[in-house]
TrEMBL record:
The keyword Metal-binding applies. It is an enzyme of class 1 (oxidoreductase). Heme c 2 binds at C185, C188, H189. This is Alcohol dehydrogenase (Quinone), cytochrome c subunit. PROSITE patterns: CYTC. The lineage of its organism: Bacteria, Pseudomonadati, Pseudomonadota, Gammaproteobacteria, Pseudomonadales.
Length: 411
């Protein structure tokens, strides 16, 4: 008996370090996966504790608040088992059986393997419990009836399927998981229909989010905007490239997620988006002033008045101050709303990898008339964006009226 007990004690003693190492590996892996899934972005309020919830998420159906997912047993997920956490992540089911709103991207996460879910759960358990409830989501009828999501989930909850990868490279396959599942990129870059579900027949063709366009991520469209594999993977890593910088909703994605991913995974994401045999990146030549339309020619003076001080007279930009207009991917979008929104709303100061930064850009919503803004947009898009069509003042008026929160004076 003594020998048996001694052997058992020895076995337990030898197993303990192995189990501890496994747990540590699982937590480290969970941290990486949580970064790739960008969980912190929606579950952290501005200035709040990580994962304590409270971020307001504006939707067409009302404002939804990110929940507390710290280990708090009262306000967070401290009582969730691995099974219950997996159900929340992949089926949109709370521990009490209630449906989560699909602002939680379980419509993409449902393709996540159980081991990855368990690793993320293990990582979240390492945080200090935040004993504070997130604001309660209170939508108007009928969207406040969570039971109604049962039918929605039956129709759309697991609608997303991964495209076949036969004959594709291992990098392509890894990139598909990083983009389509963990990164859930399609949740923003795919248009949504009336019931709020992704229109999967138009997957990755772009979607409008809070007045800004999450542009198409189709390979042909990326190439048309000047993206090649090296620039795209570098853009995900550094948040900036010759094509511009990440801004609006993508800047937190860079800050919290993509800059922290491994180089092989970033390269895999670029491979998946552009393909194993990517199309050639389009080069757009500057258009001489005399070849511009009448509105664009007038816009040159508006550019010199309000833009050239930072972006330089010939649009070459200034390091650590403002991006170049030449080759800028936003100017090359057929839809002008992002360019218009940036000019109107401005961009806050941006810190990138290392000492890279861009100074804040002021908004000009109250400084430019409809006519001036139209002329400026035409100058930028025709001169450096490869756009031949000329926008009318009525086009700009409509886009300004569609702004989600801006109130414009009559000009």
């Amino acid at each position: 008996m003594k020998h048996l007990l001694s052997r058992l004690a020895l076995a337990v003693g030898l197993a303990a370090p192995v189990l501890l190492a496994h747990a540590e590996d699982q937590v480290a892996r969970g941290e990486y996966l949580a970064r790739a899934a960008d969980c912190v972005a929606c579950h952290t309020a501005p200035g709040g504790a990580p994962y304590a919830g409270g971020l307001p998420i504006v939707s067409p159906f009302g404002t939804i608040y990110g929940t507390n997912i710290t280990p708090s047993k009262k306000h967070g997920i401290g009582l969730y088992s691995d099974d219950e956490f997996f159900a929340a992540l992949t089926e949109g089911k709370r521990r009490d059986g209630a449906n989560l709103y699909p602002a939680m991207p379980y419509t993409s996460y449902h393709l996540m393997p159980r081991a990855d879910s368990d690793a993320i759960h293990a990582y979240l358990k390492t945080f200090e419990p935040i004993e504070r409830p997130a604001p309660v989501t209170s939508l108007s009828f009928p969207f406040n009836v969570r039971m109604g999501l049962t039918g929605w989930n039956m129709l759309y909850g697991k609608d997303l399927k991964l495209a076949p990868t036969e004959g594709k490279s291992e990098a392509f396959k890894r990139g598909q998981y990083m983009v389509d599942v963990l990164g859930h990129c399609g949740e923003c870059h795919t248009p949504r229909g009336l019931p709020g579900a992704m229109q999967l027949d138009k997957r990755m063709t772009g979607g409008v989010l809070n007045g800004y366009l999450a542009p198409s991520l189709l390979a042909t469209d990326l190439a048309a905007r000047g993206w090649n594999h090296q620039d795209l993977s570098s853009f995900l890593k550094h948040g900036m490239s010759a094509q511009g910088t990440m801004f609006n909703e993508m800047f937190p994605v860079f800050h919290n997620s993509t800059q922290r991913l491994s180089d092989p995974d970033l390269a895999a994401m670029a491979t998946f988006l552009l393909g194993d045999q990517p199309p050639a990146a389009k080069v757009v030549a500057d258009v001489p002033f005399e070849q511009l339309g009448a509105s664009a020619k007038r816009g040159r003076q508006d550019y010199l008045n309000v833009c050239a001080g930072c972006h330089a007279v010939e649009g070459e930009g200034k390091p650590h101050i403002a991006v170049a207009m030449r080759g800028n991917t936003t100017l090359r979008l057929e839809d002008p709303r992002n360019l218009l929104r940036v000019i109107e709303d401005g961009i806050g100061e941006q810190q990138f990898v290392g000492f890279e930064r861009m100074q804040p850009m002021p908004g000009f919503a109250d400084k430019l008339s409809h006519e001036q803004l139209t002329d400026l947009l035409n100058y930028l898009r025709q001169g450096w964006g490869g756009q031949s069509a000329e926008m009318a003042v009525s086009d700009v008026q409509k886009l300004r009226a569609d702004a989600p929160s801006a109130e414009h004076k009559a000009h």
